[in-house]
Amino acid sequence: MVVVQDPPVTSPEPRRANPVLAALRNFWRQLTSMRTALILLFLLAVAAIPGSVLPQRSVNIDDVEGYFVEHPDLAPVLDRLGMFEVFASVWFSAIYLLLFTSLVGCVVPRLAEHWRAMRSAPPNAPARLDRLPQHATIEAAVGGAEEIGAALRKRRWRVAVRGDTVSAEKGYLKETGNLLFHFALLAVLAGVGFGSWYGWHGNRLLVAGSDTAFCNTLQQFDEYGLGPRVNATDLPRFCLELTDFKADFLPSGQPSSFRATVRVDDGPARGFSVNSPLRLDGANVYLLGHGYAPVIRYTDRYGQAQTTVAPFLSVDGMLTSEGVAAFPDANIDPKGGGDREPDAQVAFEGLYLPTAPDQAPFTRSVYPAERSPALMLWAYRGNLGLDAGIPGSVYRLDPRQVDSGRLKRVGEATLLRIGEKMTLDDGSTVEFMGTRQYATLSIRYDPGEKIALGGAALGLAGLLLSLTGKRRRVFFRITTGGSSLVEAGGLPRTDYSGFAEEFKQTVEAVERANEEGSVKR
């Protein structure tokens, strides 16, 4: 007899997982965990600290330039790290996008799970109710399970009746609040992102007077920034004229209130303050600060007079201000064909004191309001370097021109009061005519601010629900022996110190309902 043996049975070789897909799956699992979301949220808060401590170009470029002057070695390093444009930097955007992705991947699955949990019936009662944290027995004549369920429904429990057992649960608002809070956080992030894409901003130093009015075009901004989806033609059309500025100060010199009054186009004057911006159609105007612009008249050696209004930037809390008044078209011989002499240009470095001290040294103002205004001037003559086409600050002279000798100081510094004149070596004169006030304005449009505001409100509501909601379950089982008994058990799903009292009240309510039902029967 020939015995035929079957070939040995071999199990198939298990498929090896693709290491790249496995790594990506593990990365996604780690990224969408709640722990990672909390870490990224903390990093985002830490990354925003430099934007609150250091001056930002998008808010006030003058403060950034002042920081460069005060910290010439540190400022360039911080600038390379993006510390003066924190919220537009690559590293801040990376944290922002990772947080957004993490929250989406974390919240969406939880939403689906919560939806299924809310639609599902409460679980079956455990076999041993006496092992639950709360346990009680009702020794009285009772009705059926439906009557117990009805009593629980009156107390807003979700109830499932299965034969002689009743399961009930309450507290789903806690998870609802958690999800609402996280979706609100997503709304805030989306609003910030939407605003950065479709928003714009611009800063302008606006001097009082109709001859210094400003129109909302890019060419008239001192500094501006447009979102990636915004063109220059998208800016709303309006013009502003600063008609008045009122600043009140405490005796110590601390400002107590600022209020600017502007005329929008040809309409009536409208006032706004630091905490109450001017609302326009398609833009908001914010008041950032103010200062003084000395009015200086220069009469050259040919008798030609020129007047300039030169804004000076404040250097301390008493509004001691520094600036430059330049006259590049001065000393042009009217008989010489009107050609400009590059080496005969004139400029004045100035130190303005709203309230000058009674005696020297006249280096700092003693009060920010104009009680005793004085202007210290240093005269320069030569080539200002304005024709070279190299961008420079309008608030200070080009130090390269001074160091090279192409621009030389003329005479000594002179302190002028309003109406006083100074005469230079060539017979030309400069007169301090007075001052005008100016306001530093930030004009902005952020279409995502309403989305962010709504998200913040929803987040607050979700947080309240999350803190007040408590998950808990109660179970009842009817046992029949010599007499009917009801066994009850309670289980808190979250830390809830008042659950013992609530469980007691619930059992008492069920007992009363059953007694009332027995009497009716």
From TrEMBL:
The chain crosses the membrane at residues 37-54, 86-108, 179-200. Residues 34-504 form the ResB-like domain. GO terms for cellular component: membrane. GO terms for biological process: cytochrome complex assembly. The keyword Transmembrane applies. It is found in: Membrane. It is a multi-pass membrane protein. Keywords: Cytochrome c-type biogenesis, Membrane, Transmembrane, Transmembrane helix. This is Cytochrome c biogenesis protein. It comes from Phytohabitans houttuyneae. The lineage of its organism: Bacteria, Bacillati, Actinomycetota, Actinomycetes, Micromonosporales.
